[in-house]
Amino acid sequence: MTIATAPATAPRPPGSEDAAIRTEDLRKTYKSGRGDVEAVRGIDLDIPQGEFFGLLGPNGAGKSTTIGMLTTLVMPTSGRAWVAGHDVTKAPVAVKRRIGVVTQNNTLDMELTVTENLEFRSRFFGLPKRTASSRAGQLIEAFGLGDRRNAMADKLSGGQARRLLIARALVHQPDVLFLDEPTAGLDPQTRVNLWDILRVLHGQGQTILLTTHYMEEAEALCDRIAIVDHGKVLAEGTVDELKNDADAVTVVTVRFEQPVPAGFAQRTGLSGRPGVTKVEAEGDQLRVFSSEPEGLLGELLALAAADGLHVRDASTLNPSLETVFLTLTGREYRE
Amino acid sequence: MTTTIQPADIGSAAGDSVAVSVASLITDAPVPHPTLVKTFAAMMAREFRVLRRTAGSTFVRAVMQPLLFAFVFAYVLPKIGSGFSLGPSSATARAAAPGGINFSTILVPGLMASMFLMQGMFGTTIPLVSELSWQRTIEDRALAPIPISVFAVQKITAGAVQAFIGALIVFPIVAFVHAPGQAPSIHVTNWFLFALIMVSASTVTATLGLLLGTAVDPRKIQVLFAVVLLPATMLGCVYYPWAALHSIRWLQILVLINPMVYMSEGLRAVLTPSLPHMPLWAVLLALVGGTIVFGSLAVRTFRNRVIN
Question: For the whole model, what pTM was predicted?
Answer without folding.
Answer: 0.82
